[in-house]
Amino acid sequence: MHTHIEENRSHPRLADLLGAYHLANQEEKGAAVTTVAELPAAYRREVEDPAVAFSADTVLLAVPAGVREPAGCVVLKAPHEGRAPEIKRLWVAPGARRKGLAKRLMAEALRRAEASGAPAVRLTVWSWREEPLALYRALGFETVPSWDERPDLLCLERPLDVVERLSPDAVRAHAPTGLAALLVDAVEGGASVGFLAPLETAEATAWWLRVAEETARGVRDVWVARTAGGSLAGVVTLVRTGTANGRHRGEIARLLVHRSARGRGLGSRLLATAEAHAAATGLGLLVLDTQTDSPAERLYRGAGWTAAGTIPDFAADPAGVLRATTLYYKRLG
């Protein structure tokens, strides 16, 4: 089981979470009050009727594994007057902290912002809130000129990555540069992706050129995550089964995120994009394999994949050491 993220601005628990957020925030600002009724009017309205206060916005709730009620929330404010969407009201109940809820909420908020086509997302945070600030920095947010001049309030912004499908010609064009670099980086980082270290750029390029031919034949689809600066930060491919009795299934292969771009939810976005395309094009079952006990297993389990079994000594890692592999599947639709 894993943390469930749901969108619901009308959940009965939301008012309690927002109330706790605002009461704690007022105390941190040196303006402590003891009840929601004593909050400034704008904050009080949010607590009293979140569905109305955030009617144009996306409200996300985090429900921890094994728990029925949400224990965290975040609001993604809709773009207004040409401004970037803004993340606000990130809160996790004290008893549910240190379980990754805040990170999951932020990852989903960023995914929603990216899916909207926004070029960037922004937020504000008090300078003394060291833990949330560290999370935002880790997610790629940087301090920008202030749009809110309150003392000690930092304004942060992060350019958003774009996930796009590559044509065969685009795969060929990126093969010697961005795509090869992703594969080389994965092998250097110890990922078991079919190659031994050191992997030369020429060998990585040749592999991607073969993928381009598969893409042209309709055997494989390729998606990349492109940063705001245009560089490739991640890739995933979907391979279709060629046999007559296996046309209902596909395989997720080469899900790679550059080490410099990890922690931003790109792996989840790439995987979700490939899954959605597979379902939309008639596939009902997906499979994949990954090195046992690798970080990728957490991603797949969190995305609802089921482990089917483990094979010992299945493949050598980049250093040549035989490692076990775990097979996963996911039903679509």
Q: Would you write up a description of this structure?
A:
The chain is built from 9 helices and 14 strands. The protein is of the alpha+beta class. It folds into 2 domains: 4-119, Aminopeptidase (3-Layer(aba) Sandwich), CATH 3.40.630.30; 162-331, Gcn5-related N-acetyltransferase (GNAT) (Aminopeptidase), CATH 3.40.630.30. The protein has a 7-stranded mixed sheet, with helices on both faces. Strand 10 (232-240) and strand 11 form a beta hairpin. The longest helix has 21 residues, at 168-188. The chain starts with a strand and ends with a strand.
> What's the main sheet like?
7 strands, mixed
Strand order of the largest sheet: 1-2-3-4-5-7-6
Number of strands: 14
Distance between the termini: 20 Å
The total number of structural domains is: 2
Which CATH class of the largest domain? Alpha Beta
Along the chain, the helix and strand elements come as EHHHEEEHEHEEEHHEEEHEHEE
How many helices does DSSP assign?
9
CATH superfamily of the largest domain: Gcn5-related N-acetyltransferase (GNAT)
What's the overall geometry? Answer: elongated
Radius of gyration: 22 Å
Mean pLDDT across all amino acids:
94
CATH fold category name of the largest domain: Aminopeptidase
| Strand portion | 25-35%
* Sequence stretches where pLDDT stays below 50 over 5 or more residues: none
Structural class: alpha+beta
User: Helical percent range?
Assistant: 25-40%
